[in-house]
Amino acid sequence: MTTTTYEINRGRVIAVAAELFARNGYHGTGIAELGRAVGLGRGALYHYIGSKEAVLYAISKDQVDKMNSYAEEVLDRGLDADELLRELARGLLRNIADHRAEWAVFFREYNALTGDRRDEVIAARERYEGYWRQALDRGVRSGVLRQTPRLLVKGILGMLNYTYLWFTPDGELAPEALADLFLDALINGIHS
Amino acid sequence: MTTTTYEINRGRVIAVAAELFARNGYHGTGIAELGRAVGLGRGALYHYIGSKEAVLYAISKDQVDKMNSYAEEVLDRGLDADELLRELARGLLRNIADHRAEWAVFFREYNALTGDRRDEVIAARERYEGYWRQALDRGVRSGVLRQTPRLLVKGILGMLNYTYLWFTPDGELAPEALADLFLDALINGIHS
């Protein structure tokens, strides 16, 4: 399948929009400003993205969809619970590190989405949380993990998602190594 | 010490601003809009808060300062490391639950701060992280906790801070109980 010019241009508009929204806020960025940043007039911009809210939706949904596809693939590998959780965490931290602007916009601004777009992003997020629950449940069934409260998934995702705020991959520590550092504490505990 | 009318009015302006910034973004909220919401003209508003950035600074700094004072007080109680960590977490989750708008604004918008204000908020945040490190170090020294990487503090705070995005205290689960749920997983691990 080849990528069309339309897809390339649309992807560029969304990437530039993510940078602008991350820097100046969704509400603080005008559609005209986005047009100037990508060198497109109002008509061309509309052709690629439709509306400002449609861009916010694309920024948010694309990354969550990618994480869902990745989680489905990892869950199908037949890994032990320990390695399964680590792989989920590694993939998420790698994606956040590679798309910091998109994740910053998603976490800060998804509340600005309305109607179906909002519902779809929330549903996709819940699906992602569900995959983590599946991984934890699999660990309990196989006897590797103890039973923990369902809300713990929110804590694990908080630990990982929060990296968008502070983690800059600078070569010293890869996102995958950071994921292992966190998962090691979580799986084995910090008790001596 | 009595609270002056000035302090009461200033506190009200800051609380209303937090709600507006949380709903419409810092960049998406005008100073005139804030004035209308609190029923003050430009001059009176200026008297209480000075500038929009000064409000963002107050919203962010007040909560972080409160958490620093709380951490200092808890660290002085001579608690065991396990209970010390739990108390730090309980206090943070209670504060986030009671000030969701302020924390949402802080996490989303502190990047909009500039100059000294920015430096001071970042320094206060680092002080807070330092208190968590002290608590972990104390646990290692007393033999209760194992030595863990310094970056783990960022993970623990992510787990806790992220609650501003999803946790609504509705009477079923108090923030303190949620803190214990997370800390139990972290301290004891999820391994069977």
Automatic annotation (TrEMBL), chains A, B:
Residues 30-49 bind DNA. It comes from the Bacteria. InterPro entries: Homeodomain-like_sf, HTH-type_TetR-like_transc_reg, HTH_TetR, KstR2_TetR_C, Tet_transcr_reg_TetR-rel_C_sf. Residues 7-67 form the HTH tetR-type domain. SUPFAM superfamilies: Homeodomain-like, Tetracyclin repressor-like, C-terminal domain. The keyword NAD does not apply. Keywords: DNA-binding, Repressor, Transcription, Transcription regulation. Transmembrane segments: none annotated. PANTHER family: HTH-TYPE TRANSCRIPTIONAL REGULATOR RUTR, HTH-TYPE TRANSCRIPTIONAL REPRESSOR KSTR2. This is TetR/AcrR family transcriptional regulator. It comes from Pseudonocardia acidicola.
